[in-house]
Amino acid sequence: MIKMWVLYAFLSAFFAALTSILAKIGIENVNSNLAVAIRTAVVLGLACGIVFATGKHSEIATIDGKSWLFLILSGVATGVSWLFYYKALQMGEASKVIPIDKFSLVFGMVLAFIVLKETITAKTIIGGILITLGTLILVL
Fold first, then answer.
1. At a CB cut-off of 8 Å and minimum separation 6, what does 123 contact?
2. Sign of the CA dihedral running 131, 137, 138, 140
3. Which 8-state DSSP code applies to residue 27?
4. What is the rounded CA–CA span in Å between residue 41 and residue 63?
5. pLDDT digits (tens, 9 = 90+) for 82-102
6. 53: buried, middle or exposed (CB in 10 Å: 19+, 13-18, 0-12)?
C-alpha cells in the first residue's frame, strides 16, 4: 500500500507542473511582479478558506515564537523565489526554466544535510548527482 505522504508528494509535483504551465500562459502580457501578487492573493485566499473550513484557525494562538519566526522566513523565501521564478518564466522557455527551478531539489537536499543534520547516504548523493546532470542536460 502506498504511503499517504508519497501520494501527497506526487500530487504536489503534478500541481507544481500545472502551475508552471498555467503561469507561463497567464503572464504573457502581465508584469511578472503583478502576476506573483495575483497568484499570492489566490493562494492566501485558498489557504485561509481551508483553515477556516476545517476549524483550525483556533490553533493560531498556540503557535510559539520559533515557529512564527521560521514560518515567516519561509514565507519570505517563497515570495522571493516566486518573484524570480515568474521573471525567469516570462523571459525564458518554460521547458528550460522549470528544470532549473526544480534544481531546488538538490539545494534542498544539501541544506537538509547541513541545517537539519539529516543522514547523507550513497543513494542521496547519487540521486543528487543524477538530478544535477539531468538539469544540465535539459538546459544546455
1. none
2. positive
3. T
4. 23
5. 999 999 999 999 989 998 998
6. exposed
